[in-house]
């Protein structure tokens, strides 16, 4: 038992390492706060080839932390929920373990997954495990995307910079900051120019002042060899605006995909209807009204017309 725990802990640690690579199936927060191996909730750790997920090198081995589910669930009484089409959870109430398992079976052979063993009674979700896993992966990806540390950009200049070039650097810095990036502003000195570093210092202070509305200095300008630099980081309001915009863009993108997908479905439905009509006409044609050959040519051309649209929409929406 001791040995088993030690081994599990090792595996658990490597599973946590994978949080950084984004190939975990558990939201990082729950990993950080919940021990992976506890006596009350045995957690199965499985390795799977992650190549198709785009892993490289060592990342190819992905630790999948499987939740406790179905027969593995020990509690005798459970609060059961199931996701509705809107993706929110509907409550199915409190029931016995046996009832919950039967319910999952009734609902088309779905899985009963323990999602919270800390509450009383524990909460289980009836859902298709592969769909559940996909949702978790998607959430983890989104989390990673949003927490993606802002990039650090750099603008460089000489302490002898002229007004025009200064304007260009300022404009670039402004653009980077407005995108939510931190900007390292560097004044480079050559050789003995470094004795003028007070001018460089003033230059950086001026730049920081000119960008004051968008950004704050992270400390005072610092010497790095012959360089003098200061990092400007976007103010909270700027970051908030950037995040809001990103969210709005994502939403619009999703909506566009949905509309395109629905149009595609509608087009397919009318193609099917047209084919049905054509088939009916063909049947009539056999009775002498139309020649079979004419009808088939008609059918093909109308199918071509209807299928003329782009075919990658359906693929796209699931990618
Ligand atoms: C000074 O800045 C330039 C441009 O960013 C960089 O290439 C160089 O490595 C820096 N030198 C030092 C000592 O940091």
From TrEMBL:
Domain Translation initiation factor 3 C-terminal stretches: 150-234
Signal peptide residue numbers: 1-22
Protein name per its UniProtKB record: Factor IF-3
GO molecular function annotations of the record: ribosome binding; translation initiation factor activity
4Fe-4S found in the keyword field: no
Key words of the record: Initiation factor, Protein biosynthesis, Signal
InterPro entries found in the cross-reference section: T_IF-3_C_sf, T_IF-3_N_sf, Translation_initiation_fac_3, Translation_initiation_fac_3_C, Translation_initiation_fac_3_N
A single GO cellular-component term on record: cytoplasm
Any coiled-coil regions, as ranges: none
Sequence ranges assigned to domain Translation initiation factor 3 N-terminal in this UniProt record: 69-142
Family: Belongs to the IF-3 family.
BP GO annotations: ribosome disassembly
Sequence segments annotated as region (Disordered): 37-59
KW Signal (keyword) present: yes
